[in-house]
Each structure stands twice: as C-alpha cells, then as structure tokens.
Batch of 4 targets.
Target 1
Amino acid sequence: MPTRWAALLALMLGSSAVAQEQTISFPSGVSFETGDTWAYNGKKYRLFGVQSCLRGTSYRLDTGEEGDCGMRSIASLAALFSTDTIACQPIGIAKDSVVFVICAAQIDGVTIDVGTALISSGAAFAAVLPSGVPLTAAYAVAEMTAKELRNGLWAGGFDHPVTVLTRQR
C-alpha cells in the first residue's frame, strides 16, 4: 500500500498522533509540493480529504489547453494561498509527520473551505480510502457536482488520480 494511503488509513483508525489544537495561519512563502501538500517552517502539511492531480500525468481541455495535471493542481492551490492568509486547523499527524489540516481562506470577505473550493472548481478531487469510500461525503458531493458541471479539469480529459493510485497498488 503506498505510504500516502497507509498514512490516511492510520489517521482514520485513530492510530496517528493527537493533533495540535491551535489554528495555523499561512502567509505567502509556503513551498508547494503538490496540489494538496505544502511545506512551511520545516513542517509538511496536507489537506485532509483532498487528492490533487499527480505530477507527470496529463490533462487536455476542450479548449485545446494541455499540460501537467499535477502542476495545474499546484497552481490552483497557490492561487488560493495568494488571496490572503490561509488559516488551517490540524486534525491529525501521519506516521511520516505530515500534519493533516482542514483550511479556510478569506475571499472578498467570505470564508471558504479550501478543499471544497479546489474540488468544486475541478482542480482537485475527493480523496478515498483504498476501499474506494470517500474520506468526506461533502468532498465527494463537490466532486460529483464539478464533474456534472464540467468545471476545471472535468471540461476535458485526464487520468483521475484515484484511478492512477489504485493501478499502482
């Protein structure tokens, strides 16, 4: 089982370390690793329940635009971070010390959930357990809606990251 899935499973089973209770604010200056993971002040953070496109996989939109799907996911996350300070609540720590977080951003005076924004815009997807069950029902609904509306990556073709990860197992 890939390390990422093992970490998520461990978190869901309650065997991971207890999360910090304070909110963490992220100013600009974070280092994005994927469209759901970044580093800041020597620690790694990952959006809980979000699966970004994988680097090295391709997308092609109906407009003819094409490129690296993982880099497109990173650009979407970076765009949210550029709007203002992102505030995240730690909810667990994986065995590899990545801190799982749920984050909110302020955009035009409105607070939005970062995971929902990424998924509903078609820039990321609902993460699932190895069994295929989504980690969060709300994110699964956001993904289905984005797919129906053909938002973002859903407006063209791409390899869904969950399918790619499942094939790798």
Target 2
Amino acid sequence: MSKTSIKVKLAMMQEFAKFMDSGSQSAAVIFYEGIQPTSPAVAADSAKALVTLILPEPCIKEVTTSYVELHPSNTATVIKSGTATWARIFNGAGEVAADLTVVTDITLANTNLVVGGTLNIQSIKLRP
C-alpha cells in the first residue's frame, strides 16, 4: 500500500494518537542530544535525555481534513544542557510510538537547551 488516500492517512494518525493514550500514564515526548538510534526498537541512551514533556490525556485536540492536532504539552524543566537533535514519543504504557528528528519532523524555537530552563510544545500537528 504505497499510495493511500488522505482519509486513510488521517485515520492512521488518529489510531496513532489513540495508541499514545493507551496505558495507565500519559504520553511523553523526551528530547535527546546526540545521534538518533537507527530505529525506535533501539534503546535510547538515557544519559543523553535533555527534557521530558507530558501530553494530556486524551491527547487529541482536533481532527481536520489535513491533520490531527494534539493538545499542548506541560512545561517541563530541562535536566541537562545540550542541543536537542531528536525526540522519542512514548505512549501511556511506556511503549515507543515514534522517533522524530528535530528540524525535519519537529521544530523548536531554540534547539540549544540549558539546564534549569523550561520547554513546552504549544502546537503538535500530525500531518500525512
């Protein structure tokens, strides 16, 4: 299925968001410095974690004809200074949902994070 309709892609993103809400906790996005693993199946180096953001549950804010929007994250304190190069999304059961490359897949106003600073995500739109 290399070419699917926009409706199918949106349905897949809605299911992705439902997967993120599964489990007893809320979904989380952890930003890391350094080299991104080759696959979400490869464990991340916890020593490279810069900040963990929590998404509200349910995380879906709006479904449109071109994207699924998630609610904004909490504001979290940066635990280590470094340049955010990638992020990993975990569902509420602690299972990896996706890896994102900073700049390509997810945009930050400033990728240079400083310990003690804060970060939050105001807008998360998943597009097919």
Target 3
Amino acid sequence: MALQIGDIISFERTFTLEDVELFTKVSGDAGVHHVSPDEQGRLVVQGLLTATLPTKIGGDHNVLARSVNFDFLRPVFTGDTIICEVTIEKYEKQENRLSILASFLCTNQNEKKVLSGSFSGVIL
C-alpha cells in the first residue's frame, strides 16, 4: 500500500532494562544515568535508543533516510511505553524514485512529549 500525504503511522514500545544494557554495549554510551538506577530502580534510556522508534517506521516502509532531526524533550526511563506517531508531510515521485518527508512525535504513557522531529529520504 502506497503512503499518502497526511497518513499517520503509529508504533509503540516499552523500553526494558535489557534494551538499555544492550544499547550501552553496542553504542558505548555508558553515562552513569544509563547504568545506575535512580531511586525508583529505573535507568534513563539513551536518547538515540528512543530515537529508534521513528527509524523503525521508516524501515517498515523502506525509507533510505537522507536527513533526520531530533528534539529530545524529556527523559525516557526503563518501563516507559513510548508511542511514536509519524505524519507523512510530502510523498512524491521524483525521476526514478519516491521522495518522502515526515514529521514525528513521541509521547510517553502519561501523554508527555518526549521526542519530536522529522526525517526525509527516498523510498527504495
């Protein structure tokens, strides 16, 4: 099914302790807030791990990203469920490929905004 301007695609994920531990190993981002639990036993999820949510949606639609902009609005903690909504802003044929521009907003289970931004690229 082809995307259309105005389409909204949603995805949600609950981040776990294991997610943060694995991302710490892969990325090397081992800031104390990512490896030492807070008073509630939670770790802060790396910003770039949170930022995988809109890239997952791009991957589902074979987007080869050319640019991505992130605005990190508040921390995400292990146990948080983040809902990512991607809105298709532009979707058009250019020569032999499809061009796409989308914005996204991620909110936590308390409806607080945690991440916003946009991406552009081409559809393979």
Target 4
Amino acid sequence: MKHPQIEEYEINMWTMFVEPVTYGGKIYSRAVELEDEFLSPFKPLDIIKKGCVYFGVDYESRKKGTRQLIGYSRKIPIVIEPINHIYFFPTVSPLTPECIWISLEHVECYRRVSSKKTMIIFRNKQSHIFPVPIGTIEGQMLRTSLLKTKLLQRIESNGRKLFYQPNGPQSLNALERSREYDDDSHSKDPK
C-alpha cells in the first residue's frame, strides 16, 4: 500500500471519508482527508466509535440521540462533533464490512455512474466512485442534513435562552447611551 500506515487515527474536520480495505487478509481503514490519506489497522466503524469517544460521547449514545432527533433507526448518520460540523453517514448498515463513512461537510455534489455506483465530488474538487446507488447517497445526505439542522436548532435555541431571565428579557444598553458619552465635560472643544 502506498498510504502511510498509522496505528491511531482520529476523525477530524479534514476527514472526507473512511472506507474499508483488505490488507494482509484483514479489514483495515483508508481514511481520506483533504490533502492526505492514511491506512489504519482498525475497521471504519471502530474509527467512527473512537471519534465519538474522543469528543466525549460514546457511539451508542450518539445513535440513540440521532434516533430521537430525526426518527430513523436504520443506517443512521452520526454527529461526531457538532461545533466543527463533523457529521458522517454510512453507505450501508454500519455492521456490514463494506460500510463506508462519508463526511457531509465535504460533499459538494454527486452523480450516478451506474445503477450501483455513485461519484461524489468533494469540495476540494477530488472525486471518488463509491459502490452505492445514487438513491442511497441522496437519502443519506438528506438524513444527515436533517440531523444537522435539528441539532443546530437546539443549540441555537439553548443559546437564546441564555439571554432571558425568569422575569422577562434582559435589558441590554448600548455604550453610546451611557453617561460617558452624554456628559459634555469629558469632550474637548476643537475650537
């Protein structure tokens, strides 16, 4: 293999996709980033699970949260880290050895290559053909976008709540209305 092999790989905001590859009779992962590729001795699902734990939540909790937010229970997308928009979706059941995980944020567009193949063009203009029907990619993109939207709405809603007190909205005064600006004794007459 021409890709550098590393023992530990962490999903990050530059990861475009993680796919299984057979190497020495075992299933490894090829992690493709914006400007680099790595070979890891772990399966793609293991890398996704490690990514969740790295950002403080286990994979099963992320799955449960996704189910509650969007109502799907099969081939569900996973938010690994919402602040940096690290959302991945599986191409088939995550328990299937052929499962590829694709980052929503890096997909620019996609097109049908054949009945069972789809080309994804990533934002860095690289393209890759995945052994998945276009309908699957479309559905997974929609599910992941729905997850992202619902989660961001909740984060935004909670942020707005911080600006309110139990007895009504907080009064926010602009500095221009303070006495420092209204007091003429502090200003110097340019005449």
